[in-house]
Design a protein that fits this description.
The complex is a heterodimer of chains A (485) and B (122). With 485 residues, chain A is mainly α. Among the domains of chain A are: 128 residues; 85 residues, no CATH class; 105 residues. In chain A, α10 packs parallel to α12. Chain B is mainly alpha-helical. Chain B has one domain. In chain B, 65% of the residues lie in helices and 3% in strands. Chain B has 6 helices and 2 strands, in the order αααββααα. The chains are: A mainly alpha (485), B mainly alpha (122).
Amino acid sequence: MTTVGAAIPFQPRAPVARQRLSRANFHATVRLLVWTALWGTVLRNIGASVGVWAGGSLGAAATILIGVVIPAWLFVVFPSWFAFRIAGPHGMRRLAALGCWMSPLVRMRDLPSISAWFEVTIDSHLRPCPGWAELPADAWTALAAAVQADRRRSPARAAEIADALAHLPAGARFPWLARVHGVEALVVSAVARRDWATAARYARVGQGRLIRLLALVACGIGGAAVPRRQLWAGWLLAPMRRTTFPLVRALARRDALAGGTRPALRPPRSGAHARHVALLEAAARNEEIRADEVFALATVWQGAIDDAALAVLRARALELGIRDGEARALALRDQVLGELALLLARADGELAGAPAHAFGETLVGRAREQQLARIRDALGGLDADAVGPALHPLAAWERWLTLRAAWERAEQLGGRAALAALWRSTVRDRLWSYCCALSHQHGARAAWAVFVMFDWLADRAEYVGDLVAVLANRENARIALASLR
Amino acid sequence: MIAGDFEDLVRERGANPFFVLAVAPDAPVAEIERQGQRLLSELAAGLDGARRYPTPFGARDRTPELVRVAIAELRDPVRRLAHEWWARGLAAPAQSAGVRPPEKTTVADRACGAERLAAAGL
C-alpha cells in the first residue's frame, strides 16, 4: 500500500495466508465432490425411475424437461431457494446454511458471511453474532449491519450503508443473492412498519421480483400513479403473494376510486411556521425532502422573519419585561436558520434552486458549515493509530460512512474551496493512513472495505484536484482489489 | 442529522405550552396559572377531555408532567416570547382557514378543538 509520505509494500502474512488458502481449497474440493456425488445420484435415480415408468413413451420436450431442465433447476436454483425462502424464514439457520453450501450460486468464501446474515435476520433480540470478529467485511456482513441498524431504529445508519452499497465501485463484489435476499430483508422490515419512503430507498439497492413489487407499492402509496396491470403482474410474479395481497388490493382499489388522478395526499400548509413544522415532520418520518422544498420554505421565511417581524418581536419583548429584546429576536431568527440548515443537510438535490436573497445565502452558508463540522467530527473516528485487532473491518468501514455522507452532501452544497482546504489540511492524510493501517492490520478480511475506501479517496482527490493522491489511491485500490480476488 | 433529532423538534413544536394549556398566546399570567391548575385537577380526576389537546398538526397526549412543564416555561418571559411567536405563527393559518386558536378553556371546547382542526384539514 502506498501511504501518504512513503511507499510501504503490501505484505500479507505469507504462511498464515498460505495455510488459509490450502484449507479453503480443501473445503472447496470437498464441496465439489459432495455436489458431484449427490447430484449424480439424484440425476441417475430420476432418469432411471422416469425411464422405467415411461417405458420410452415420452416425447422430446418431456424428455428435455425431465432430463435437463428439472435437474438443472434442482442443482442451480433449488438449494438457495430452499435456504432463503423456506429454511431462513422459519428460523432453521443450520438448514439454511446447508442449503447455501449446496448452492452453486454461493461462493465458498461467502458462506461464513451468509451464515452471519442469517443469524442477524433470524435473531430478533439483536444479540451480537457469534464469530462476528472473524468475519470479513463484505456485502453480506454490510447488509447484516444494515438490518441490525434498521431494527435498532437507526435509519440514518442503515440508509448510509444502503447508499454506500448502491454506489459501490466496479470490482467491489455485491453478489446477486445479496442484492435479492439481503436487500429484501431490509425492504420487508421497512414495509412491516409502514415506512414506505425508507422501503423505496432500500429497494433501489436490490433486485428481484418481491423488491420490484414492494418498490411499486411504495411509489403508489407515496403518491405516484401505478398502472393496475403492472401492479397485479408484479404481484403474480413475486413470492409472498399471500402476504402482499392485501397491500396490492388496497392500492389497486384506491387507484381505481381516484380514477388514476389522485390528488396529493395532504394539502400543503400555508404560513412559514406551519410549512416549517410540516417539513420537520416529513424529515422525522424519513420521507424524502428535496432541496428546492427547503429553499421554497426559506423564501417564505424571508418575508415572515424580516426586519418588521423582528421589530414586532422586540416590542413584545419589551411588554414582557425582557431587557435584551433585540438579541432574543435575533436568537429566534437564528433558531429558524439552524433548523432550515439541518433540513437542507438532510434534503436531496443540489443548489440549482437556491434563492438569491440574503436569507437564502446565509442558509446555504450555514448548511455548508454544518457539513464541514460533521466532516471534522467524523475524522475524529478515523485514527490510524487506533486501528487494531479489536476494530472489525466492517466497523472501520462504517466509521468512514459518516465521513462519506457528510463530504458528499458538502459537495452538493457547493463547498469546493472549503473542501479542498479541508482535504489538504486533514482529510487526505488521515483517511489515507487509516485505510493503510486497516489493510495492514486485517489483510484480505478488510480488502473489500479498503478497496471501496481507496476508490472513494481517489475520486475525492480528483474532485479537489490533487493529482498525486489520485494516482496513489488508484494504485492502492488496485492492490486491494487484487487481494480481494 | 438523524431522524430522531427531527422527531425531537416536532415533539417540541407540538408541546408548545400554549397548545398544552389551551390558552391564547396573549393570555395573562394569572389565566395561565388558573388554566394549568384546572387541567391538573381534571387529569387527576381522569376526565377524558383533558387527556388530549389539539395542535395545528394533530391531537397530542396531555400528561400532568407536560402541564407542569408548560406552566414553568411560561413563567420565564424569554421562553414565553419564543413559545408565543411559534404559537401565533402556527395558529395563523388555522385562523385563516376558519379555525379559532385554542383560547376556550372548557373541557367540551377543548374536546371538539381537535375535530375542528381536523375538519379544516390541519
